[in-house]
Amino acid sequence: MPCCYFFAFFYFCLSPCLRVFVVIFCFPMTFTSARVREAYDRIRNVIVETPLESGSDLLPENPVRLLFKMENLQDTGSFKLRGATNKILSLMPEEAARGVIAASNGNHGMGVAAAAKRLGIRAEVYVSPHVSPVKAKRIEEYGAIIRRAGTNPLEAELAARAAAAQQAKVFISPYNDPEVMAGQGTIAVELEKQQPGIDAIFIAVGGGGLIGGIGTYQKMSSPGTEIVGCWPENSRVLYESMKAGTVIDFPEQPTLSESTAGGLEPDSVTLPVCKQVIDRSVLVTEDEIAAAVKRIRDAKGWIIEGAAGVAVAAFLKEAKHYRGKTVVVVICGGNVVEK
Questions:
Q1: Is 164 in contact with 171 (CB distance < 8 Å)?
Q2: Positive or negative, the Cα torsion across 8, 13, 14, 16?
Q3: Which of 117, 217, 229, 307 suits a disulfide with 257, CB 3.0-4.6 Å?
Q4: What pLDDT was estimated at residue 338?
Q5: Which domains does the chain have, with CATH numbers?
């Protein structure tokens, strides 16, 4: 039996608490900037290198050089395509031949579906009844088979994981996977080329894959760059888990940032990484998110989703601290949920 299979068997036999112990003490040694660079080399000819756009006109009274990393211009309208593509390209041939399974009501599902279609791999995406009809249609248009399960996103994910285990297929988590996190981190490789000397990067946080990947690479390429985690006050499970030092349940309220909402798996590989790379955290209200989305629309004519609005709102809230500096805000997506 190959070592990787033996380790996987051993790992999944452990209790959730022991899994956290293994992740915290082993994962930081294995997830490095080199892994992000490998991901970039793997997916660079498949994904879009998104541009940096100036946003300094948002605050004409403040001499900050504000730049937006436009992940809303990715093929699926979100950065999620990066992680999904890297994961699928890293599969062994026999794994790819069996197909993949994911669970998502939105951007991750579209990312997995689009990456799988491009590479000729069968994909199934489990969704809950809360899925937007428009997003469900887009997932199907990208070629994935929709499976409806459960009464909420967590139940749909549990059903997807059970199906993947039963069918011996790879389950692609939206964040709890080193290859997914490495794929999201390729944004930092592009930033290294596009804009040297970044003083701070503002990033919306859900499960932590995006900020964990970007932060890991950025700490190698530009150690002085401040990594700022941005959360909606109504949904901040990873923020509270970082404070507690372990994954905890934390009550959530509805949020415009639906792409970052939801709990954190007990064995999440992102927790120890985010504890290492996040320098500062900013929480924003629903009113601040809505105002940021409107401000971007009025000033730039861009339609951005609530999660991107979280990062913009966090910067606007803290802008006074960055006078004379170069700041990047990651516009993580532009897929607005239709109500």
A1: yes
A2: positive
A3: 307
A4: 58
A5: 34-79+177-331 (3.40.50.1100), 81-171 (3.40.50.1100)
- What's the confidence (pLDDT) of residue 71? 98
Could you give the C-alpha distances from 156 to 116, 131, 150, 278, in angstroms and in order?
Answer: 20, 11, 5, 30
Residues 6+ positions from 53 with CB-CB distance below 8 Å: 67, 68, 70, 300
Name the token pair of 326. 């170069």
The Cα 215–Cα 238 span in angstroms is 15
The residue with tokens 């507690």 is: 244
* pLDDT, mean of residues 60-67: 92
The CA distance from 188 to 209, in Å, is 13
Q: What are the start-end ranges of the E strands in the chain?
A: 52-54, 65-70, 100-103, 123-127, 145-148, 170-171, 200-204, 226-232, 280-284, 326-331
Radius of gyration of the chain (CA): 19
Q: With bands split at pLDDT 50, 70 and 90, how would you rate the model's confidence at 13?
A: low
What is the average pLDDT value for the chain, to the nearest integer?
A: 90
Helices within 252-305 (DSSP H only): 270-277, 286-300
Enter the tokens of residue 117: 């279609």
Mean predicted confidence (pLDDT) in 80-88: 98
Name the amino acid, one letter, at 325.
K
Q: Three-class SS of residue 111?
A: helix
